[in-house]
Amino acid sequence: MRKTILTLALITVAALACAAAAFAAPAQVIIIRHAEKNEYGSGLSEQGFRRAAALVKFFQTGPAVTRCGTPAAIYAAAPKNEDSSIRSIQTVAPLALALRIDINANFTRGQTHKLAREIMENPAYEGRMVLISWQHGNIPNVIRELAEYNNSGQAVQNSLPYEWPDEAFDRAWILDLSRGRVVSFKDVPQRLLPGDSFK
Predict the structure, then answer these.
(1) With 140 labelled, which of 12, 45, 182, 187 sits at a CA distance of 20 to 30 A?
(2) Does residue 10 register a pLDDT over 60?
């Protein structure tokens, strides 16, 4: 009898721990592509550095991206080796400096499952916004991993894009969450530099 009670107690504790992990999630995750790149090399172009600088004000005061405040954390894709792209990090470096927070570059661009799991299980992000700067080919995987983590509704999952346009550097994809599940997706323009899309 005592063994059964102990077993039930352990199961209950485990269930509560899982529930806490499931709902200790951010209120919003925003994903951007790294800024404009040079034709050759692993860094940003002059236009890209201008965008990186303009993103500081965008993420501090832009109405479309500050509903949940400034970023609680900034993630950027890590280079796989010394010759790999550092553009995702360069893109958010000025913002991280302005906010006095470190860039988390612990995951390479293909490690989207690990990235999503860390974000969705970190209690420090509960109710706040997390920003991700990533390589555009893997951004659709990022949003799907986040949406599938706690089995977000099928309608929401069906609304998620399957690709980021090759020539677009001026967008922000916004996932709103409630109780650990993605409840809406928005694709908004940054409107930061001449030539940026206004729709």
Answers:
(1) 45
(2) no
Q: What is the pTM of this model?
A: 0.87
The CA distance from 32 to 29, in Å, is 10
Residue 3: pLDDT band with limits 50, 70, 90:
very low
Compute the distance between CA of residue 27 and CA of residue 176 in angstroms, rounded to an integer.
6
In order of their start, the domains of the chain are 2-189 (3.40.50.1240)
* Contacts of 119-123 spanning 24+ positions with Cβ under 8 A: 119/25, 119/26, 119/29, 119/73, 119/75, 119/146, 120/21, 120/22, 120/25, 120/26, 120/146, 120/149, 120/150, 120/180, 121/21, 121/24, 121/25, 122/24, 122/73, 123/20, 123/24
